[in-house]
Specification:
Layout (H helix, E strand, L loop, with lengths): L1 H20 L7 E9 L4 E10 L10 E16 L2 E16 L4 E14 L3 E2 L2 E2 L4 E13 L2 E11 L10 E11 L2 H8 L7 E9 L7 E7 L10 E7 L9 E6 L3 H14 L1
Antiparallel strand pairs: 1-2, 1-10, 2-3, 3-4, 4-5, 5-8, 6-7, 8-9, 9-10, 11-12, 12-13, 13-14
Length: 263
């Protein structure tokens, strides 16, 4: 149990650092899981997640995407325990149902364990593949899921007595990495592309920076164009910033053309 507490503290520290030092580009959620193996070994799990930036086959029904998960795992049976770390990419198909997003998922990752034995199982190696299939539902920042997981070394060494697990999870997704930057008047969220930098008239080193940002406020929120005015072109944050939703860009361009004629 000391090891799982230590792992929890370590992951909590990572979350604190991600918030403080900008590592939020690599971590956008935390997950807690509890389950049991087929032969009654208790399973506890805590992890850090990062959603894929890409979505494929997006339409009115849904889209393909996924996430990366780094987890600390603790197995316990009576006086025996095993501690492991795992990293896995997980692919999922999300269905659009308003704020609710049911999904199915599957993934294969890698794990390393402190022991090769638990209960009557001889797993032979410290290294194992982590396989999963599951289903869940996302609601805004929350994610609830239930999955089947299997660990084994794929026959690299025998005996290969893998373990089968059924586990439930709850995850919380942070939007701070985007909304925090908006509040601080940076170029807002994850800047997907700097479209153009323009020398700011009447200044020595000022710039106008125009950038595109996808999903600036939350998942599936409308893309925006961010226009930042920098009196010092080398500064981290703009002195003024405007964020124009994609659907308003044409109207804003027309208004700017009319304004130009009047000045």
């Amino acid at each position: 149990m000391k090891k799982i507490i230590l792992a929890s503290c370590t992951l909590a520290s990572c979350l604190t650092l991600s918030y403080a030092e900008g590592l939020d580009n690599y971590v956008d959620g935390v997950t807690f899981s509890i389950g049991q193996s087929k032969d009654k070994i208790d399973i506890y799990r805590i992890g850090l997640r990062k959603d894929f930036d890409s979505k494929w086959g997006k339409n009115k029904i849904g889209y393909f995407s996924g996430y990366y998960e780094l987890s600390a795992n603790y197995w316990n049976w009576k006086n025996e325990s095993n501690f492991g770390l795992a990293l896995s990419p997980v692919f999922a198909y999300y269905v659009n149902v308003g704020d609710f997003k049911p999904y199915i998922e599957a993934g294969i990752g890698l794990s390393y364990w402190s022991k090769t034995h638990i209960k009557t199982r001889n797993m032979s190696t410290h290294f194992h593949f982590e396989d999963r299939i599951g289903a869940g539902i996302r609601y805004k920042n929350l994610d609830f899921s239930f999955r089947y997981m299997h660990y084994s070394n794929a026959g690299i060494k025998h005996p290969n007595m893998g373990i089968d697990i059924f586990i439930g999870s709850i995850s919380y997704k942070f939007w701070y990495n985007k909304s925090k930057n908006i509040i601080k008047a940076k170029l807002m969220g994850r800047v997907d592309k700097i479209v153009k930098e323009i020398a700011l008239s009447g200044t020595k080193n000022g710039k106008i920076k125009i950038a595109t940002i996808l999903e600036p406020y939350s998942e599936d929120s409308e893309a925006v164009v961010s226009v930042g005015i920098f009196l010092d072109g080398d500064a981290e944050a703009p002195n003024w910033v405007a964020h124009i939703p994609k659907s308003n860009i044409d109207a804003v361009v027309d208004a700017l053309k009319k304004a130009k004629e009047e000045v």
